[in-house]
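ok new one. same drill as before - structure tokens go in, u give me an amino acid for every spot. 451 of them this time. try not to just spam alanines like last time pls lmao
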């Protein structure tokens, strides 16, 4: 079928003469390939008297290509044979991966929802606490305003500043003032509480919306502590105010009782200024707390104290001269300085210099202003309810009969007119025309001014 050269064919013709003239028999292509493979130089393919010769590399390339085509055909056939199973497994794997991915997303969403819910809950709790603190601060500011409506004069003389190391010590029993109603004015202890409660605490320490829980709690605790301090100071100030007003009301009533005066008559004699308006009863809310109830009691007692102050404005318990109280002659039986015999002295002689101002000791109306025998120049003032005062031995008279005078008003000057041995003020207090010891009234004034 195949050989390395043409000599092989020629050799075959010479050995078979009987075949001469006949066409050579056709040999299969496989035999030709085998023959070509047996030779070491190359391969020759003979077909229909034609020969094709090629080297081993080309041959094996052709063989490899045929093998690869066969393998590819087998793989393709296998793929199509098992295509449905492969696709099913791929789809199942894809679905499994998708389900796992969706489960993971659902878990993450659940975590996000829980975290968001927790944050919303924390934010809601924080907002509730902050709203509670704001309402409490507003209530404290309202209380501070209520405390501010209480006049300082309502509690002066009965409340002393507390907790101040730089406060000067008291020099002793305060002396009555000749022009005031013997009240020593001091700063009320609630002033610091008023100022502190108005400070913008919320604006200073208000945390942000996304602050950490510990930081938020710490800020809220600081706010609560600050508000607690303000509330304690306000309650302490309110208690001090209530105690001071109660103490002063008791002293006022005690003074009127000790002087033997009739409260109803004094109130009836008290002049009333123009006032009016519809009657609106004071009602305490049913849900009022301790602060509101205490403030209600204070307002009631303060109204009573104001009426007593108006009543006591007609009681002559103040000094008629400026300076220290020093008597040259007391009330009662004494030796007459001119005759040397026992005599009744119906007033007090105050040591003073000529020309010193003389002040009226209570509100009233001048009923006498002129020369009055042994009194010399004398002024008499009617204070109502049978009370009257006399000021004798004056060098000058500064008022007229019928003139209305007020506490502390200068009505004359110290002198030595009438039966007098030297400049001084003869001062009398009378009840229903009868002379009584003025020291009784002066001691009442010292008692009212005592803290």
């Amino acid at each position: 079928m195949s050989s390395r050269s043409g000599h092989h064919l020629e050799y075959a013709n010479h050995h078979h003469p009987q075949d001469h003239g006949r066409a050579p028999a056709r040999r299969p292509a496989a035999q030709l390939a085998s023959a070509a493979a047996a030779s070491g130089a190359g391969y020759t393919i003979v077909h229909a008297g034609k020969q094709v010769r090629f080297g081993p590399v080309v041959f094996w390339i052709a063989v490899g290509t045929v093998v690869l085509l066969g393998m590819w055909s087998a793989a393709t056939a296998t793929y199509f044979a098992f295509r449905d199973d492969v696709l099913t497994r791929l789809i199942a794997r894809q679905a499994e991966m998708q389900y796992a991915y969706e489960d993971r997303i659902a878990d993450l969403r659940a975590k996000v929802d829980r975290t968001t819910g927790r944050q919303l809950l924390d934010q809601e709790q924080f907002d509730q606490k902050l709203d509670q603190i704001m309402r409490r601060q507003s209530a404290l500011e309202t209380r501070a305003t209520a405390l501010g409506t209480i006049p300082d004069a309502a509690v002066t003389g009965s409340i002393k500043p507390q907790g101040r190391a730089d406060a000067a010590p008291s020099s002793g029993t305060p002396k009555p003032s000749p022009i005031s109603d013997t009240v020593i004015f001091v700063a009320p202890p609630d002033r610091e509480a008023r100022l502190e409660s108005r400070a913008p605490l919320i604006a200073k320490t208000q945390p942000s919306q996304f602050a950490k829980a510990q930081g938020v709690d710490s800020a809220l605790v600081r706010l609560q502590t600050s508000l607690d301090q303000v509330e304690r100071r306000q309650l302490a100030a309110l208690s001090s105010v209530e105690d001071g007003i109660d103490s002063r009301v008791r002293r006022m009533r005690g003074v009127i009782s000790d002087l033997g005066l009739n409260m109803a008559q004094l109130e009836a004699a008290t002049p009333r200024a123009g006032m009016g308006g519809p009657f609106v009863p004071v009602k305490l809310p049913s849900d009022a707390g301790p602060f509101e109830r205490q403030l209600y009691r204070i307002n009631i007692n303060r109204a009573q104290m104001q009426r007593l102050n108006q009543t006591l404005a007609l009681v002559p318990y103040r000094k008629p001269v400026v300076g220290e109280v020093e008597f040259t002659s007391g009330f009662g039986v004494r030796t007459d300085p001119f005759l040397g015999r026992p005599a009744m002295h119906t007033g007090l002689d105050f040591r003073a210099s000529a020309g010193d101002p003389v002040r009226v000791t209570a509100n009233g109306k001048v009923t006498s202003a002129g020369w009055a025998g042994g009194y010399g120049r004398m002024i008499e003032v009617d204070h109502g309810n049978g009370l009257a005062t006399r000021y004798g031995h004056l060098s000058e008279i500064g008022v007229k009969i019928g003139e209305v005078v007020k506490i502390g008003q200068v009505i004359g000057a110290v002198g030595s007119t009438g039966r007098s041995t030297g400049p001084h003020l003869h001062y009398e207090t009378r009840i229903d025309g009868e002379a009584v010891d003025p020291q009784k009234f002066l001691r009442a004034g010292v008692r009212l001014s005592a803290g």
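The chain is about 45% helix and 15% strand. and btw Residues 1-27, 35-39, 153-211 have pLDDT under 50 and may be disordered.
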